[in-house]
Write a structure and sequence with these properties.
alpha/beta; 5-stranded antiparallel sheet
Length: 242
Protein backbone atom coordinates (compact mmCIF):
# COMPACT_ATOMS: atom_id res chain seq x y z
CA UNK A 1 0.00 0.00 0.00
CA UNK A 2 1.24 3.47 -0.89
CA UNK A 3 0.92 6.31 1.59
CA UNK A 4 0.26 9.64 -0.12
CA UNK A 5 0.17 13.19 1.26
CA UNK A 6 -1.48 16.20 -0.36
CA UNK A 7 -0.55 19.60 1.02
CA UNK A 8 -2.50 22.56 -0.38
CA UNK A 9 -4.30 25.40 1.39
CA UNK A 10 -6.96 25.52 -1.35
CA UNK A 11 -9.73 23.20 -0.11
CA UNK A 12 -11.49 22.95 -3.49
CA UNK A 13 -8.27 22.20 -5.37
CA UNK A 14 -7.25 19.61 -2.78
CA UNK A 15 -10.56 17.81 -3.23
CA UNK A 16 -10.05 17.64 -7.00
CA UNK A 17 -6.49 16.34 -6.62
CA UNK A 18 -7.55 13.69 -4.10
CA UNK A 19 -10.39 12.42 -6.30
CA UNK A 20 -8.16 12.13 -9.37
CA UNK A 21 -5.57 10.15 -7.39
CA UNK A 22 -8.21 7.86 -5.83
CA UNK A 23 -9.85 7.18 -9.20
CA UNK A 24 -6.52 6.43 -10.89
CA UNK A 25 -5.30 3.95 -8.27
CA UNK A 26 -8.71 2.25 -8.27
CA UNK A 27 -8.36 1.57 -12.02
CA UNK A 28 -4.99 -0.17 -11.52
CA UNK A 29 -6.18 -2.03 -8.42
CA UNK A 30 -3.59 -0.59 -6.04
CA UNK A 31 -4.33 0.19 -2.42
CA UNK A 32 -3.48 3.67 -1.18
CA UNK A 33 -3.94 5.81 1.89
CA UNK A 34 -4.21 9.59 1.44
CA UNK A 35 -3.71 12.23 4.11
CA UNK A 36 -4.65 15.81 3.29
CA UNK A 37 -2.92 18.80 4.88
CA UNK A 38 -4.24 22.33 4.53
CA UNK A 39 -1.34 23.76 6.54
CA UNK A 40 2.28 22.93 5.62
CA UNK A 41 3.31 23.17 9.27
CA UNK A 42 1.07 20.18 10.06
CA UNK A 43 2.72 18.10 7.32
CA UNK A 44 6.17 19.03 8.64
CA UNK A 45 5.16 18.06 12.19
CA UNK A 46 3.85 14.68 11.04
CA UNK A 47 6.91 13.96 8.91
CA UNK A 48 9.27 14.93 11.72
CA UNK A 49 8.10 11.88 13.67
CA UNK A 50 10.61 9.07 12.95
CA UNK A 51 7.94 6.45 12.24
CA UNK A 52 5.98 8.60 9.76
CA UNK A 53 6.65 8.82 6.04
CA UNK A 54 4.88 9.02 2.68
CA UNK A 55 5.96 7.47 -0.60
CA UNK A 56 4.35 10.33 -2.56
CA UNK A 57 3.87 13.96 -1.59
CA UNK A 58 1.86 16.41 -3.69
CA UNK A 59 2.85 19.89 -2.56
CA UNK A 60 1.41 23.24 -3.62
CA UNK A 61 4.07 25.91 -4.11
CA UNK A 62 1.91 29.01 -3.63
CA UNK A 63 0.63 28.77 -0.06
CA UNK A 64 0.11 31.33 2.67
CA UNK A 65 2.99 31.60 5.10
CA UNK A 66 5.66 29.06 4.12
CA UNK A 67 5.80 28.46 0.38
CA UNK A 68 6.08 24.96 -1.04
CA UNK A 69 9.76 25.17 -1.95
CA UNK A 70 10.74 26.06 1.62
CA UNK A 71 8.52 23.24 2.90
CA UNK A 72 10.26 20.85 0.49
CA UNK A 73 13.69 21.95 1.77
CA UNK A 74 12.63 21.21 5.33
CA UNK A 75 11.18 17.84 4.30
CA UNK A 76 14.38 16.88 2.48
CA UNK A 77 16.38 17.88 5.56
CA UNK A 78 14.57 15.08 7.43
CA UNK A 79 16.47 12.63 5.20
CA UNK A 80 13.42 10.57 4.36
CA UNK A 81 12.76 9.06 0.97
CA UNK A 82 9.71 10.19 -0.97
CA UNK A 83 8.73 11.27 -4.46
CA UNK A 84 7.74 14.92 -4.65
CA UNK A 85 5.29 16.45 -7.11
CA UNK A 86 4.89 20.22 -7.08
CA UNK A 87 1.51 21.76 -7.82
CA UNK A 88 1.78 25.28 -9.17
CA UNK A 89 0.01 27.90 -11.20
CA UNK A 90 3.29 29.13 -12.69
CA UNK A 91 6.28 27.53 -14.40
CA UNK A 92 8.88 30.06 -13.17
CA UNK A 93 9.71 28.06 -10.03
CA UNK A 94 11.39 25.19 -11.85
CA UNK A 95 15.01 26.34 -11.62
CA UNK A 96 14.58 27.50 -8.03
CA UNK A 97 13.16 24.14 -6.96
CA UNK A 98 15.66 21.79 -8.59
CA UNK A 99 17.71 21.46 -5.38
CA UNK A 100 14.83 19.70 -3.58
CA UNK A 101 14.66 17.06 -6.37
CA UNK A 102 11.03 17.25 -7.46
CA UNK A 103 9.90 14.25 -9.49
CA UNK A 104 7.40 16.22 -11.56
CA UNK A 105 5.42 19.47 -11.73
CA UNK A 106 1.74 19.75 -12.51
CA UNK A 107 0.31 23.09 -13.59
CA UNK A 108 -3.04 24.35 -12.37
CA UNK A 109 -5.87 23.93 -13.12
CA UNK A 110 -5.44 20.24 -12.36
CA UNK A 111 -7.45 17.65 -14.24
CA UNK A 112 -7.19 13.93 -14.92
CA UNK A 113 -5.68 14.49 -18.38
CA UNK A 114 -2.67 16.23 -16.80
CA UNK A 115 -2.42 13.99 -13.78
CA UNK A 116 -2.77 10.49 -15.20
CA UNK A 117 0.54 10.43 -17.15
CA UNK A 118 2.32 11.72 -14.04
CA UNK A 119 0.63 9.11 -11.85
CA UNK A 120 1.64 6.37 -14.30
CA UNK A 121 5.26 7.57 -14.11
CA UNK A 122 5.07 7.69 -10.31
CA UNK A 123 3.85 4.10 -10.10
CA UNK A 124 6.61 2.97 -12.46
CA UNK A 125 9.20 4.80 -10.36
CA UNK A 126 7.88 3.32 -7.11
CA UNK A 127 7.93 -0.17 -8.58
CA UNK A 128 11.56 0.31 -9.64
CA UNK A 129 12.58 2.48 -6.69
CA UNK A 130 14.97 0.02 -5.11
CA UNK A 131 16.77 -1.47 -8.10
CA UNK A 132 20.33 -2.42 -7.24
CA UNK A 133 23.64 -2.78 -9.03
CA UNK A 134 25.43 -5.89 -7.79
CA UNK A 135 29.22 -6.02 -7.99
CA UNK A 136 32.20 -7.84 -6.56
CA UNK A 137 35.49 -6.67 -5.05
CA UNK A 138 37.82 -9.58 -4.49
CA UNK A 139 35.71 -12.33 -2.95
CA UNK A 140 33.23 -9.91 -1.39
CA UNK A 141 29.84 -9.22 -2.98
CA UNK A 142 28.20 -5.79 -2.67
CA UNK A 143 25.14 -3.94 -3.84
CA UNK A 144 24.54 -0.28 -4.63
CA UNK A 145 21.16 1.32 -5.18
CA UNK A 146 21.08 2.49 -8.79
CA UNK A 147 19.21 5.73 -8.11
CA UNK A 148 22.05 6.84 -5.79
CA UNK A 149 24.66 6.71 -8.56
CA UNK A 150 25.78 10.16 -9.73
CA UNK A 151 28.51 9.31 -12.22
CA UNK A 152 30.43 6.30 -13.53
CA UNK A 153 33.81 6.64 -15.18
CA UNK A 154 36.28 4.23 -16.77
CA UNK A 155 39.74 5.01 -18.09
CA UNK A 156 41.09 1.60 -19.00
CA UNK A 157 37.87 -0.11 -20.06
CA UNK A 158 37.95 -2.92 -17.48
CA UNK A 159 37.60 -1.09 -14.19
CA UNK A 160 34.96 1.50 -13.30
CA UNK A 161 34.80 4.21 -10.64
CA UNK A 162 31.31 4.97 -9.28
CA UNK A 163 30.49 8.23 -7.50
CA UNK A 164 27.38 8.26 -5.29
CA UNK A 165 25.16 10.92 -3.74
CA UNK A 166 26.85 10.42 -0.38
CA UNK A 167 30.08 11.58 -2.11
CA UNK A 168 31.70 8.16 -1.72
CA UNK A 169 33.58 6.54 -4.62
CA UNK A 170 34.08 2.84 -5.24
CA UNK A 171 36.11 1.00 -7.86
CA UNK A 172 35.50 -2.48 -9.21
CA UNK A 173 35.88 -4.51 -12.37
CA UNK A 174 33.00 -4.00 -14.80
CA UNK A 175 32.71 -3.01 -18.44
CA UNK A 176 31.04 0.33 -19.15
CA UNK A 177 29.03 -1.08 -22.06
CA UNK A 178 27.66 -3.82 -19.79
CA UNK A 179 26.62 -1.23 -17.20
CA UNK A 180 24.68 0.65 -19.87
CA UNK A 181 22.53 -2.46 -20.36
CA UNK A 182 21.64 -2.48 -16.65
CA UNK A 183 21.08 1.23 -15.98
CA UNK A 184 17.70 2.83 -16.78
CA UNK A 185 18.09 4.73 -20.07
CA UNK A 186 15.45 7.24 -18.94
CA UNK A 187 17.96 8.98 -16.67
CA UNK A 188 21.42 7.58 -17.38
CA UNK A 189 23.42 8.79 -20.38
CA UNK A 190 26.92 8.14 -21.67
CA UNK A 191 28.32 11.61 -22.35
CA UNK A 192 31.66 10.44 -23.72
CA UNK A 193 33.66 7.27 -24.23
CA UNK A 194 34.52 6.87 -20.56
CA UNK A 195 31.71 8.54 -18.55
CA UNK A 196 28.06 7.78 -17.76
CA UNK A 197 26.04 10.31 -15.74
CA UNK A 198 22.73 10.32 -13.90
CA UNK A 199 20.66 13.16 -15.38
CA UNK A 200 18.92 13.66 -12.02
CA UNK A 201 22.13 15.05 -10.55
CA UNK A 202 23.04 17.68 -13.12
CA UNK A 203 23.38 21.10 -11.51
CA UNK A 204 24.58 23.09 -14.52
CA UNK A 205 25.40 22.93 -18.21
CA UNK A 206 27.64 25.42 -20.02
CA UNK A 207 28.38 24.49 -23.60
CA UNK A 208 29.82 20.97 -23.57
CA UNK A 209 30.60 21.14 -19.83
CA UNK A 210 28.29 19.47 -17.30
CA UNK A 211 28.54 20.08 -13.55
CA UNK A 212 27.13 17.39 -11.26
CA UNK A 213 25.80 17.58 -7.71
CA UNK A 214 29.12 16.27 -6.33
CA UNK A 215 30.86 19.22 -8.11
CA UNK A 216 32.48 16.86 -10.60
CA UNK A 217 32.72 18.35 -14.11
CA UNK A 218 32.36 16.11 -17.17
CA UNK A 219 32.43 16.88 -20.87
CA UNK A 220 30.09 15.84 -23.67
CA UNK A 221 31.94 14.46 -26.67
CA UNK A 222 31.22 15.90 -30.09
CA UNK A 223 29.72 12.64 -31.34
CA UNK A 224 27.32 12.44 -28.36
CA UNK A 225 26.29 16.11 -28.36
CA UNK A 226 23.07 15.81 -30.35
CA UNK A 227 21.95 12.60 -28.64
CA UNK A 228 22.56 14.22 -25.24
CA UNK A 229 20.42 17.23 -26.17
CA UNK A 230 17.58 14.92 -27.19
CA UNK A 231 17.90 12.75 -24.08
CA UNK A 232 18.11 15.73 -21.73
CA UNK A 233 15.15 17.44 -23.41
CA UNK A 234 13.05 14.31 -22.92
CA UNK A 235 14.23 14.10 -19.32
CA UNK A 236 13.15 17.72 -18.66
CA UNK A 237 9.80 17.08 -20.33
CA UNK A 238 9.18 14.09 -18.08
CA UNK A 239 10.24 16.05 -14.98
CA UNK A 240 8.18 19.14 -15.73
CA UNK A 241 5.17 17.39 -17.22
CA UNK A 242 5.38 19.52 -20.38
Amino acid sequence: MYKIAICDDNVEQTGITEKIILDFFATIDRKIEIDVFFKPETLLNVMSEPKNNYQLIFLDIEMQGINGIEVAKRLRALEKEFLLVFITGYDNYMLESFEVLPFRYVLKPIDSEKMEPILQQLVFELDHHNQYLFYKIGKQHYQLRIRDIVVISSELGRKVKVGSVDESEIEFYFKLKELLKILPSSYFFQVNRGVIINLNYITGIIGDQITLINEKVVYISRRNRQDFKKAYTKFIERCTGI
